[in-house]
Amino acid sequence: MEKMSRVTTALSSNSITGRTMFCHLDAPANAISVCRDATQVVVAGRNIFKIYTLEEEQFVEKLNLRVGRKPSLNFSCADVMWHQMEENLLATAATNGAVVTWNLGKPSRNKQDQLFTEHKRTVNKVCFHPTEVYMLLSGSQDGFMKCFDLRKKESVSTFSGQSESVRDVQFSMKDYFTFAASFENGNVQLWDIRRPDRYERMFTAHTGPVFCCDWHPDDRGWLATGGRDKMVKVWDMTTNRPKEIYCVQTIASVARVKWRPEKKFHLATCSMMVDHNIYVWDVRRPFIPFATFEEHKDVTTGIVWRHQHDPHFLLSGSKDSTLYQHMFKDATRPVDKANPEGLCFGLFGDLAFAAKESLISSDTNRKPYPGGDRRYPIFFFKKPDPTEQFAHVSSALSVFETDLDSNRMDWFVKTAQLYLLSGKPFAELCDHNAKVAQELKRPQVSTTWTMLRIMFSDPANLTAPGLNHNLSKLGPMPLMNSFSIKEIGPGVGTESRLERSKGESRQDNIHLDPGNSHISNNEENEETEGSEGQAEYMFIDAELDDDDLYSMEHDNQAEEQEYTLPQEAFQLRHEIIDNPSAPEHLQQDKADSPHVSGNEAEVTCLTPIESFSLISISQPLYNPHLPASFFCPIVREMLSYYAEQGDVQMAVSVLIVLGERIRKEIDDLTQEHWYMSYIDLLQRFELWNVSNEVIKLSTCSAITCLNQASTTLHINCSNCKRPMSNKGWICDRCHQCASICAVCHHVVKGLFVWCQGCSHGGHLEHIMNWLKSSAHCPAGCGHQCEYT
What we know:
Elements: E1 7-11, E2 14-18, E3 21-24, E4 31-34, E5 40-44, E6 49-54, E7 59-64, E8 77-82, E9 89-94, E10 99-103, E11 112-116, E12 123-128, E13 135-140, E14 144-149, E15 155-160, E16 166-171, E17 178-183, E18 187-192, E19 201-204, E20 210-215, E21 222-227, E22 231-236, E23 243-249, E24 254-259, E25 266-271, E26 278-282, E27 291-293, E28 300-307, E29 310-318, E30 322-327, H1 334-337, E31 342-345, E32 351-356, H2 357-360, E33 395-400, H3 410-418, H4 426-439, H5 443-456, H6 506-510, E34 537-540, H7 584-590, E35 614-617, H8 632-644, H9 648-658, H10 660-663, H11 668-684, H12 688-697, H13 701-704, E36 752-754, E37 761-763, H14 764-773
Antiparallel strand pairs: 1-2, 3-30, 4-5, 5-6, 6-7, 8-9, 9-10, 10-11, 12-13, 13-14, 14-15, 16-17, 17-18, 18-19, 20-21, 21-22, 22-23, 24-25, 25-26, 26-27, 28-29, 29-30, 31-32, 32-33, 34-35, 36-37
Family: Belongs to the WD repeat WDR24 family.
Main location: membrane
Keywords: Autophagy, Lysosome, Membrane, Metal-binding, Repeat, Transferase, Ubl conjugation pathway, WD repeat, Zinc, Zinc-finger
């Protein structure tokens, strides 16, 4: 272990020096206690009872009190106490119910002095009187406390706590006759040793057993208690009724509590299970420990400050068979690692922000004088110890509320109720869900469903009914035949006009040069065929009205006359009568310049299609030879995008609708996380049917079993009122048929309805018809049954 810096504390004529150190024990320790001069420590347990000397660099074993070939159960210790007035006097609480005193001044190997066997069960605690040499107090699992005079061979007083067991007893540091006792039932009692017949005061301190208590060494009326409810409470006992003045919330059951010497508001605690650390708390700031000792690897069973006037050294024993001396300077300070601000979003979008008041106060720019108020002489101010600064810090909480209408979750509920996830062909599911998203004003989601239909649908079914009602106007024209652009000029996207080739006619646009894209109609397959080059797509966002006509203007520097494009983009199957002719100057230039020159773009006419974005394509949008797996990577990224944005509903819905097309592309843990998140949201909004449908459609084994739990129904026989077995309709005890209809008196082998008040029932239809005319039970028991 790394050697820590030494510290020296002045204690009258003596001084304590040392460092953080430890030693290995022969067995786990149950309790430890230190002698008056802080030079020796005794360690006791079921299989260990030794005294160690505290040197500057290490622990040195001095005496083994567990002697003999076959040590008796008197050496199996649950607690140990070293007398603070008599340095040679020890007392132990044995697991067999014995209270044993030990005299270290005996010349023999066996140091046992007296043995008291009046308790019937394990003794949990022993305590010497702080000023009376011969007075010893014990508390046992049998519910009794006994006061012993070590000059006599038996107890002088017995106190009955009227409880199952006594967990701790402690003499008051200031009141000579008073001691406190904590009990298994959560009560704390104050007794006067002169009145063993009845306690003076009793109050309920914790919701559960109170494992420990400790009187404050300086403040006469403060009593600290710790219990199984993970609380440490400080009580003011000077008032007529005990008053809780401080409460510290820990993370585990509190097994030991000890006030820190010379520090009024500091106390140390350790836990009975789970947590292995030792915490020092400032009761004024109960939500974060002042200091933490993290050396032990198992539960800490005993803690004690090395000297009653020294706050810098703490001794501890543990079930990991180690004995530690902790130097307070080496403790971990959790407050240094704590986040000084807090930020959290509420369910409906509200934002809560907490920070220290000094950070958000109006006069944060002021820098106070570090030495204090300049109106007083500077020598009156004592320089604070930075290791002991843990002042009470107050924080301010700010809540920023959002507009309820802007953050309503109605769209989530309606989407969950209206979405179709199964039961229809894939294309119809996508169309329906796109329509639902469009009606709820979610255009991006609607477009996503439409694109999924285009990517994964069978090419022969691209023109399925219901995709768009405007397609009927175009006859058998393929869906993907929009228009062809041979070359796009630099002005596209920024200019509102497109240049048209001078020598171009409508007929020439249909049949392009070899190597360029061409568009033709196939009447048999109704598919779009194109060149074998890579398809190019250009998406232009535009809002179109149903009757708008997009025109491309010809901008000629020589002539300012504008030209309106034809109304049809594709060659029709029948003769077009009203075919507008081009202007004369274009007809004249046709023979001279038939091809595109410069930056001019050769384009065809555009016809708007309702509810579709403007798409410019140089080749067919869909290649029938392209496998569906080609789109899987981008779909996977799309699902991750929606999940990261918080729309796990979309991710799960697409995952279910696509099924095996995409499921193998996403790992099982991610799918399970999405499913669990979506199901949790559905259940929060009480959409139980939708939640169950999602569970049924899931292929994750961890999800499909969710609706299989807690499905067992335990019923009782309507005759003998005893539980029924699962082997049939005959009761094993009364040997009568339990599920007989109270109306027709036949066995109910299907749906059975019964009254929870009288247990009679029968066929659903029979009971419904009966209760229409009568409010009483058909079995004649007189109970007024009601069908709801």
